[in-house]
Amino acid sequence: MLSKKTKYGLKALIYLARQYDKGPILIADLAQEENIPKKFLEAILLALKNNGILQSKKGKGGGYYLARSPKLITFGQAIRIMEGPLAPVPCVSETSYAKCTECGSEETCGIRIVMKDVREAMAKILDGTTLADVLEEIDKAEETQKGVLNFCI
Amino acid sequence: MLSKKTKYGLKALIYLARQYDKGPILIADLAQEENIPKKFLEAILLALKNNGILQSKKGKGGGYYLARSPKLITFGQAIRIMEGPLAPVPCVSETSYAKCTECGSEETCGIRIVMKDVREAMAKILDGTTLADVLEEIDKAEETQKGVLNFCI
DNA sequence: ATTTAGCCTATGGTTTTAGTAGACTGATTG
DNA sequence: CAATCAGTCTACTAAAACCATAGGCTAAAT
After folding, report:
1. Which InterPro entries does UniProt cross-reference here (chains A, B) (predicted)?
2. How does the average pLDDT of chain A come out, rounded?
């Protein structure tokens, strides 16, 4: 399960993606708009900044904004920053491999064999989905919803 | 990341699958063989028993054994018992759905749209992989390893 | 110089994880 | 029947992770 931190972070990124090229957004506004504790959000955005996803401007007219186009930021990148590696076990992680403590031979570990597939399936989706993709999917879903609504009326 | 509890549990299940129809296995033996703290393993096996994956016999000649054929026990079943739902967010869980706290409209939530795909991909693998499958894959991997070894000699 | 708004450090509460201890119960066997 | 064996139950603890909150510091704009 994703932590609240990660969910907050993803919500913030989607919000910022929608406001892309509209200049810096205040933490306070973002927090209020998305119902996220302001101080907690500060820490999250800072982490995303320190990892190159966001940029910030201090002082009046300041705020946070995406470091690059929504087309170039993926869910995978963001989740790894906030939640850690995607891999269910460290020994199948591409981005931060580590030997499993007392897991005899790596090649013949049943857990590893299965989890390798799981990691790959997750990575394929999360590294293949950009913020721009998500905005598009949200818009599509909203259109569908509107259709349902009209149908009901 | 899988918890140690889950890894221990999976290891135990694979071990018991290999010993299937060889009668009950002692917790103590399993713990020693797989390097798992005995008391911790006790609790794990009990949970797996209470959820219908394992059965046990008390007294002399007792121990634990699979409740049914390794072909009928999947990784998905076991992981859900020890780790909880596969879904990254509760609102896409098939086995224990729950509304996400303050996630406005479910249909148009960007996080949900993506995580629905992730859950499906994971479930497809984990619910499609039985203990019997894993044993087979391990054997295959061991054959390959032996080949590598012979080649080196 | 003052205000604005992000940055940094510290702290606290709650929950989960990992593990331990010890008494209890049910089954077997001599 | 009693001794022994082996799983079951209750309780507890230490450490880590998670979810925040408080308050002062620093950089930028006017």
Report:
1. TR_Rrf2-type_CS, Tscrpt_reg_Rrf2, WH-like_DNA-bd_sf, WH_DNA-bd_sf
2. 95
